[in-house]
Prior knowledge:
The structure holds two protein chains of two kinds. In chain A, 43% of the residues lie in helices and 23% in strands. Chain A is built from ten helices and ten strands. In chain A, the strands form two sheets. In chain A, strands 6-7-8-3-9-10 form a six-stranded mixed beta sheet, with helices on both faces. In chain A, helix 3 (95-106) crosses helix 4. Chain B is mainly α. Chain B has one domain. In chain B, 84% of the residues lie in helices and 0% in strands. Chain B has helices at 4-28, 35-50, 54-75, 85-124, 127-133, 138-176, 181-189, 194-220, 226-256. The interface between A and B is medium-sized, with 22 and 17 residues.
Amino acid sequence: MIQVRNLIKEFEGRIVLNDITTSFKKGAVNMIIGKSGSGKTVFLKCLIGLIQPSSGEIRYEGRNITEMRAREVKRLRRDMGMLFQGSALFDSKTVLENVMFPLDMFSRKNQRERKKRAEFCLERVNLSHAADLYPSEISGGMMKRAAIARAIALNPRYLFCDEPNSGLDPKTSQLIDELISDITADFGITSIVVSHDMNSVMNIGDNIIFLNEGILEWQGSRDRIMDAKNEKLNEFVFASELFKKIKVADSIISESNASEQQDG
Amino acid sequence: MCTLIPDVMSIVSSLESIGEYVELMRRVMAPPDRAREFFKEFSKEVYKLGVNSIWLVMIISFFIGAVIVMQIAINVASPLLPRFTVGVVSREIILLEFSSTIMCLILSGKVGSNIASEIGTMRVTEQIDALDIMGVNSANYLIMPKVSAFVFFMPVLVALSMFLGLFGGYIICLFTGTPPVSTYIYGIQFFFRESFVWTSIVKSMIYGFIIASVSAYFGYRVKGGSLEVGKASTDSVVINNILILAADLVFTQLVMG
Lengths: 264, 257
C-alpha cells in the first residue's frame, strides 16, 4: 500500500503540488489524471523518489521514502518498475538485452535462467519476434511493450507508468492499456499510471485521482467519474466530444427508462 | 557595483559547478553494482574511445611529425648549430608536448564531444532516470567505464603518436635529405632521456581523466532537449582544452622546472 500525506512540492517559490493526501489501491490500476501542467508527472517523480518533495510523507508499506537513506531507497527501487513516456530503452542494447539488463544487474540467477526470464517477459508482451532488434528498429508501440517487459523483469511490487499512450494510435493505446491491466492482475502488482487520456481511464482505471493545478480535486472509481459533481473534473472529462455525447446519450437513456417506469 | 554583480554570480556559479563535479566523481568512484557488467562496459569503451581513435592519432601524428622536422630544418639553418639539432629538437617537441598535450587537445574534440553527447542524450531521453529507478548507480555505471577505459588506453595512443611523429620526420629526411637520415637518427638518439617518455605518458593519463570525466559531467547534467545536448558537447570541449592547457603549465613547472 502506498500512502501520501500532506505532500507539497515547490519549485523556486511556485507550488506545483499543494498538500496532497491520498492512498493507492493495492493490486489495482491507480490512475493520476489531469490537464497538462497540473503536476501529474511531478507527483509521479516524487512517488518514485526522483524528486525530493518540499514537505510531506510518502509511505510504502508504512516506510517513508522521503526519510530513507540512499541505500534503502535503492533497495526499495528494486521493487519498482517504471514505464517512461518515451520508453527510455537503452539505444545501445537490443530489446532482449534491455529486458535482461535489470536481471544482469540484480538477479542471482545464472545466465541461462536470466535469459529464460527475459524471454518469458517478452513473450508476455507479445514481442518475442523483436528480441534481437535495436530500439531504433521498432515502432513506438513495440518500444512501450519492450519497456513494460523490462519493467516487470524483476517481478516488481509497484509499476509506474508515465503517459503510456502518448504518441500511439487508438488501437495500440488500447493494447498497451490492456497489457498494463492484465499484468497488474496477473502479477498482483500495484500500478500507478499518469495519463490525460480518458479512454484509458475508462478502460483500466480502478482508482482515479484527479489533479488540478497541483490540488487533488477528486478521487474515486471509474464508475463514479461520469456522475461526479466536481466542476473542474467535469470540465476535464467532458472536454472530449465523445464523452459529451456519451453523457447526452446516458441522460436520454435514463430519462426514457424513467418514463417507461412511470408508464408501467 | 552593477558590473560587479554578474562577476560575483559567475564566480558562485563556477564554484557550484566544481562542487557538482566533485559530488558526481564521488558517485562515479563508488564500487560498481556488478563487477561483471563493469568489465563488459569497460571493454566496449576501450574499443569505442581508444581503438576507434587510433586512425586519427596515426594520421595526425605522422603528418605533424613530418611538418615539425621540415619547419625546424628550415628555421634552424645556422652554421653555428650542428645539423643533428633538428632531430634533438623534433624529439623533444614530439615526446614532451605534441604526443601528450596537443594530441589530448585534439582527442578532447573527438572523445570529449562523443562522451558528452552520448550521456546528454541518455539524460534527455530519460535513460539515466530509468537506471536510477532500477536502483543502479547511474553515474558509476555510465561514467566509470568510460573514464577508466580512456585512461587505460591513453599510453597506447601516446606511444603510437610518439613513434609515428618521429617516423613522419624520418620519411621527410628520407625524401628531402635535409637533414640526412643518419643525422636525424643520431639527433633523436642524442642525449635521450627515457624519463621524458614516462613523463609524457603520465601527463596524458591525467589529461585522459580530465577529458573523460569533465565531458561526462557536462553530459550528465544536461537539462532540456537536443539544443542543450549540443551546447553541453561544445562546452565540454572548450573547458577540457582550458583545463588541459592549465594542467600542462602546472605539470611542466612541477616536473621540468
